[in-house]
Amino acid sequence: MRISEIKEKLNLTVVNDGDLEFENGYVCDLLSVVMGKIQPKSVWLTVQTHKNIVAVAKMAEICAIIICDGFSPDEDTVEAAKKEGVIIFKTEKKSFEVAGLLYNMGVK
Questions:
Q1: 66 closest CA partner among 47, 38, 39, 41
Q2: Regions of the chain short of the pLDDT cut 70
């Protein structure tokens, strides 16, 4: 599935746009757990907004970050995402709701 498909279907707000093919989803707010457990080519759902999420995304080969629950990334995070080419979206929806919607779309 492509990032652009979920952007449209979930009505996500673009922070730093892009379009990649992804295979999995993961929901977690502890960076150390994400680093150890997320699979490459995943979409990561979190409420974290600081620029360390960009570093984790690059290191773990994450396709996109969706910041949930109405949180917005810090300016440092946005600048780091642009510099590193990390796709970030945000949404007012709760992480649980986004995970359920992605699951219903076939993302496991």
A1: 47
A2: none
